[in-house]
Amino acid sequence: MQKTTLHTYFEEAVKEQINFDFDQIPFTLGVSDLKELLPLSESKLYLMLDQNEIPARKIGGKWVVSRSEFLTWFYQYQEETDYAAQVIV
Prior knowledge:
It is built from five helices and three strands; from the N terminus they run H-E-H-H-E-E-H-H. It has helices at residues 5-20, 31-37, 42-50, 67-77, 83-86, and strands spanning 28-29, 57-59, 62-66.
């Protein structure tokens, strides 16, 4: 699949957000943290968590993602994802 200008824009924006906030990313992330870092809808995030697409665990009924697992997943996932198609405006 050929990358569009919009796809490249979203990809770079997400990379910049992750790199800029690295020291501020908590050791564990919840859904609200993922929403701040990824240009995905809340329903898409829950779907990905339920389908084990994002490496996470449920603790006390809440999704928790470790920072190291998130970053490993993110850099692998972002190469395969069309962010422009995921964003709901």
